[in-house]
Amino acid sequence: NESDLYNFDESEHETESDIVTAKDDITPTCLKIGFLGLGIMGSGMVRNLIKTGHSVMVWNRTPMKCRDFVQAGASMGGTVTEVVAACDITFGCVSDPNAVRDLVFGTNGVLQSIRPGKAYVEMSTIDVETVQDVAESIESRGGRFLEAPVIGTRKPAEDGMLVIVAGGDRSLFDDCESCFLAMGKKAFYLGEVGSGTRMKLVANMVLGSVMAGYAEGMSLAERAGLDLQTVLDVFKEGPLNCAAVRSKGDAILHSRFEPSFPLKHQQKDMRLALALGDELKQSLPVAAAANEMFKRAISLGNGDNDMSSVYRATAL
Ligand code: NA7
Fold first, then answer.
1. Separation between Cα atoms, residue 256 and residue 253, nearest integer Å
2. d(CA 279, CA 281)
3. DSSP assignment, residue 4?
4. Prediction ipTM score
5. How far is the CA of 239 from the centre of ligand 1 (A)?
6. Helix spans in the chain (H)
7. Taking the chain, what is the end-to-end CA distance rounded to the nearest angstrom?
8. What phi and psi values does residue 261 have, to the nearest 5 degrees?
9. Could you say which of 40, 43, 97, 272 has the lowest number of CB atoms within 10 Å?
10. Catalytic site residues?
11. 38 CA distance to ligand 1 centroid (A)?
């Protein structure tokens, strides 16, 4: 259904300057937007909201991270409650289920300002149970709720090219149109709360399994005496030629593991996807093995490195 999809067609806008020009055509909503969480993902998303003319108020647990955004035109809230009170729609994008619970249910949290007319959009990747708890609490106070986790890492967040997989209040999805166009290349409306989260967990589980298999292959290639640059060149000419293989291959080749997507978050997504598999009695042997590799990489000190540093758990 076309109306379930905000589509920013990349094929027509192949260069970065094309993207910037096309994003310039967005008419920003006149609703006041709040944004909680200025990590790797939140930073890129907020920058694109500001660039496209949205009126944004930001908050981050570590307040220093708000400074650049205030310079770029955002206002800053002293607490989460203050942001939700001042804004019509507030987005949240923090690390994991515990962080979301702190943000929503904690002292000076989201819930304290929720009342009819207020809306909250959860963009963190968390589990279905947590997202449903958040939805129920917001809705029981008369607010509207949407889950909208995103597929993509640092660069797509910076370029406004994320894929948004939403579930929940349809009218809120529609009210988010200009924000989603600013942050993403496509926004899917998948139905009830939980459907976006399930979609996101499946996508990241597959990505994690692919990454772990790829890292293992690169280790085997190295052990077998192959030149890794040549291996990459061969991959790039065949069916493995995709953005993930190209960028993560370069990261492995040059041992450049600055986080585009922190490995600890990838392991969290494997854990949440495996828990979903447990609940549904779905066997997931490949993902379970990949998860062990991510856990090992964390114990070797790679939690804050990019997910591609799972390679270090294979090169032993
Ligand atoms: P980052 O770059 O690790 O940033 C995490 C953000 O979450 C950052 O703003 C943190 O604040 C914030 N955070 C972490 N714990 C809390 C608690 N307890 N309360 C409030 N805020 C918190 O993550 P990404 O941007 O890469 O990813 C964000 C989500 O998108 C995640 O679910 C991914 O899987 C997808 P800080 O700056 O440390 O004070």
1. 8
2. 6
3. G
4. 0.99
5. 34
6. 16-24, 40-51, 67-71, 80-86, 97-105, 128-140, 154-159, 170-175, 177-183, 195-223, 228-237, 243-253, 263-280, 285-299
7. 49
8. -140, 110
9. 40
10. 200
11. 7
User: For ligand 1, is residue 65 a contact (CB within 6 Å)?
Assistant: yes
Distance 189 CA to ligand 1 centre (A): 24
Residue minimizing CA distance to atom 11 of ligand 1: 61
Q: Is ligand 1 within 6 A of the CB of residue 124?
A: yes
Indicate the pTM of the whole model: 0.94
Show pLDDT as tens, one digit a residue, over the chain (316 residues): 545 555 544 444 445 554 555 788 999 999 999 999 999 999 999 999 999 999 999 999 999 999 999 999 999 999 999 999 999 999 999 999 999 999 999 999 999 999 999 999 999 999 999 999 999 999 999 999 999 999 999 999 999 999 999 999 999 999 999 999 999 999 999 999 999 999 999 999 999 999 999 999 999 999 999 999 999 999 999 999 999 999 999 999 999 999 999 999 999 999 999 999 999 999 999 999 999 999 999 999 999 999 999 999 996 6
DSSP 105-131: HSTT-GGGG--TT-EEEE-S---HHHH
Chain centroid, CA 55 distance in Å = 22
- The reply to whether ligand 1 has any atom less than 6 angstroms from the CB of 60 is yes
CA dihedral in degrees (156, 160, 163, 169; nearest 10)?
140
Q: How far is the CA of 262 from the centre of ligand 1 (A)?
A: 11
Q: Which residues of 152-175 are buried (b: 16+ CB within 10 A; e: fewer)?
A: bbbebbbbbbbbbbbbbbeebbeb
- Locate the ligand 1 atom nearest the alpha carbon of residue 124 and give its number: 32
Instruction: Measure the CA–CA gap between 136 and 24, rounded to whole angstroms.
Output: 36
Closest ligand 1 atom to 96 CA: 32
Which of 58, 95, 258 to mutate for ligand 1's pocket (most ligand atoms within 8 Å of CB)? 95
